[in-house]
Amino acid sequence: MGEERNHRGASRRWLTSELDSSLRRLDVDHVDLYQVHRWDPTTTDEETLSALTDLQRSGKIRYFGSSTFPAYRIVEGQWAARRHNLGRYVTEQLNYSILNRGAETDVLPVTENHGLGVLVWSPLSSGWLSGAVRAGREVTTHRSSVIPQRFDLDVPANRAKLDVVEQVAKVAADAGLTMIQLALGFVTAHPGVTSAIIGPRTMDHLESQLAAADTVLSADVLDALDAIVAPGVDLSPEEKIDTRPSITDATLRRR
């Protein structure tokens, strides 16, 4: 939210002040769901949960959840809430798509076990699964103008994704579905998923995505997708931005 070092994170002070700022900007007296957007390794679970519980008791938020938390941090949050008699996260907002199936390995089993609602972000994988990214076409998605490196077909990983997209497109065509219907139907087919978050920029985008609301994929279609991208495999791990500090901060690995 700014360049100052304390204008981020999940401390009591920051959560409280930013919620008040949001309520003023939105001109409302409460929000239904307040989510901690990525785990803050500099703040304890007890401090964060205590602040969220107080905000809930004051009526400023109805429920609170987490977003893009590693599986072990979701578990730690549930344990901390129980240990300190605090409110608990009731939702997890995670990255999940045909191209990013890593959540199936640990996060989704954990959220199911703890009864969390799951909101999927980027089910179209930044536009890769929208039908706009195809072989022989110029990539003109909004994301490609913002983060062009993720769509640069000179990068081997991106060429591999394009090959997968072409295979997925054939599955969609054979099933009589659009790529968007297939992509959104895939994530909502998982029993641990509550909803998929869409981000239309135009009315055409909205209509094409709403067309997937009633899509139910058959077992043979899901099997075909499993054969293209194996369960638990991430083809776009850079999109998730959830690398643990122990990987990025060398001081945490050395004495």
UniProtKB/TrEMBL annotation:
Keywords: Oxidoreductase. It comes from Jatrophihabitans lederbergiae. Coiled coil: none annotated. Residues 4-229 form the NADP-dependent oxidoreductase domain. PANTHER family: NAD(P)-LINKED OXIDOREDUCTASE SUPERFAMILY PROTEIN (PTHR43364:SF4), NADH-SPECIFIC METHYLGLYOXAL REDUCTASE-RELATED (PTHR43364). Pfam families: Aldo_ket_red (PF00248). SUPFAM superfamilies: NAD(P)-linked oxidoreductase (SSF51430). InterPro entries: AKR_Detox_Biosynth, NAD(P)_OxRdtase_dom_sf, NADP_OxRdtase_dom. This is Aldo/keto reductase.
